[in-house]
Write a structure and sequence with these properties.
By secondary structure, the protein is α+β, with helices and mostly antiparallel strands. The protein folds into two domains: 330 residues, BirA Bifunctional Protein, domain 2 (2-Layer Sandwich); 95 residues, Anticodon-binding domain (Rossmann fold, 3-Layer(aba) Sandwich). The strands form six sheets. Strands 3, 7, 8, 9, 10, 11, 12, 13 and 16 form a nine-stranded mixed sheet that branches. The protein has a five-stranded mixed sheet with strand order 20-19-21-22-23, with helices on both faces. Strands 4-6-5 form a three-stranded antiparallel sheet. Helix 11 runs parallel beside helix 14. The longest helix has 21 residues. The protein is globular and about 80 Å long. The relative contact order is 0.14.
């Protein structure tokens, strides 16, 4: 993409309403524009990042054997009345009445709807286990929407639902989701720590939140410092293996890590003092096992091997896709702007032409642009007739991981400059070598499932 033809409305000044880093930088980098309180338009660059995150979530869900679908944003209130949550959910539930005087709602989650779908089409244990998921916009009418996309009213969320014959099978689904989430977050350049949490209005006894450590986090968290040394890495896990999934869960949850809602001061005190940590965290996902809560209430049962009708065991599993955009920025920025991890960057590499209009510099930039595209990469070429300082400031603000700078002086020596946004380190090399280096870096971040 050529920046002269792109819609990137960057701001020099920080809007007064932005209270946290991610909100400030998303507004300044031209990623979002507020429509009304807690509701945003996603402008082109913000939308690109959102889709990169969504794709990673899809790929890891499908890798774990989960089946994608799509449910509507507007749901009939009758389903929620059947489960008992229509009145219990509270004022965050946006209730609507259509022109036929039917009670409807803008879905904040989909337990009732997915249970209705399941009970309409599945009657035998032979069709289990089954996990269905979708990525869809949700709405919760927050009393005080704030912090940009971190605490908005409208948000994009992946929510998945497992249906199993027994509690043991459902707990394997729980463990399988924990494994897939660890892999998902690491692909985005995040370390998300699973912490024992409170189930809230969804219900259930078993639940873990995934939190990214950040000073602006809404939750106070208590954890054993050893947990931050853990990494999922490139390991392969057989998602069908109960033992392998359980082993990963035990590895990542055996050390103390809890939100303030479930913190146990006595247990925390047993950790050696040098490893005790108290910090703030941003929730980016949560997994639940809630047994037969919804299947009992809504008659979602199957026939078992003995011909008996039994309620299915369920769980739900969410990832805040739009919230992750803010969380990544909170975890990865400096005083000059965003620093995107390679896995989610909107463009793979920036090209800065120091002397727009110079025939040799223009030709070199065009060749770099074509060569990067030929490698399957998306470059952002700053071809504006602007001063070099302004071009560098824009690149730092929008946070592309790599920048190639082209100028007449370097070209006389046959070199361009490749710069890392994260470290600030630069290296002179031939244009061909710069393209090869960038292509090599991104080889590890190619989509795992091109069909998604």
């Amino acid at each position: 993409m050529r920046l002269s033809r792109y819609f990137l409305p960057v701001l020099k000044e920080t809007p007064a309403e932005a209270q946290i880093v991610s909100h400030r930088l998303m507004l300044r980098a031209g990623m979002i524009k507020q429509s009304s309180a807690g509701i945003y338009s996603w402008l082109p660059m913000g939308f690109k990042v959102l889709k990169k995150i969504e794709r990673i979530v899809h790929e890891e869900q499908i890798r774990a054997g989960h089946v994608p679908m799509l449910m509507p944003t507007i749901q009939p209130a009758d389903l929620w009345k059947e489960s008992g949550r229509y009145d219990a959910y509270g004022a965050e539930l946006l209730r609507i009445r259509d022109r036929q005087d039917r009670d409807m709602l803008y879905g904040p989650t989909n337990e009732e709807m997915i249970t209705d779908i399941f009970r309409s089409h599945v009657a035998s244990y032979k069709d289990l286990p089954l996990t269905l998921y979708h990525i869809q916009w949700k709405f919760r009418d927050e009393m005080r929407p704030r912090f940009g996309v971190m605490r908005g009213r409208e948000f994009l969320m992946k929510d998945g639902y497992n249906f199993d014959l027994t509690k043991e099978d459902a707990l394997h689904a729980y463990n399988r989701h924990l494994v897939s989430y660890l892999r998902t977050y690491e692909r985005m350049g995040l370390q998300a720590i699973p912490m024992r949490a409170d189930s809230g209005p969804i219900g259930g006894d078993d639940t873990h939140e995934f939190l990214v450590l950040a000073e602006t986090g809404e939750s106070e968290v208590f954890y054993d410092a050893e947990i931050t040394d853990l990494s999922f890495g490139d390991r392969e896990v057989d998602y069908d293996s109960v033992d392998e999934c359980r082993a990963v869960l035990e590895e990542f949850t055996s050390r103390y890590a809890r939100t303030d809602e479930t913190h146990d001061a006595d247990e925390f005190a047993k950790i050696p003092e040098a490893r005790q940590r108290v910090a703030r965290g941003i929730e980016v996902g949560q997994i639940f096992y809630f047994g037969t809560k919804y299947s009992d209430a809504m008659g979602a049962s199957v026939q078992d091997a003995d011909g008996n009708k039994v309620p299915v065991h369920m769980g739900s599993h969410g990832i805040g896709v739009s919230r992750l955009v803010g969380a990544i920025i909170e975890a990865s920025h400096d005083e000059n702007g965003i620093i995107w991890p390679e896995g989610v960057t909107p463009f793979h590499c920036g090209i800065v032409n120091l002397k727009q209009g110079d025939a040799e510099a223009d030709a070199a930039c065009e060749n770099l642009y074509a060569a990067l595209e030929a490698e399957g990469l998306e470059p952002l070429y700053d071809d504006r007739n602007e001063r070099a300082g302004g071009k560098f400031a824009t690149m730092d603000l929008i946070g592309l991981p790599w920048r190639i700078t082209v100028g007449p002086r370097g070209l006389k020596n046959g070199v361009v400059e490749l710069t890392s946004r994260r470290t600030g380190e630069s290296e002179e090399m031939s244009p061909e070598a710069a393209v090869a280096r960038v292509a090599e870096i991104y080889a590890a971040h190619k989509p795992v499932n091109p069909g998604v």
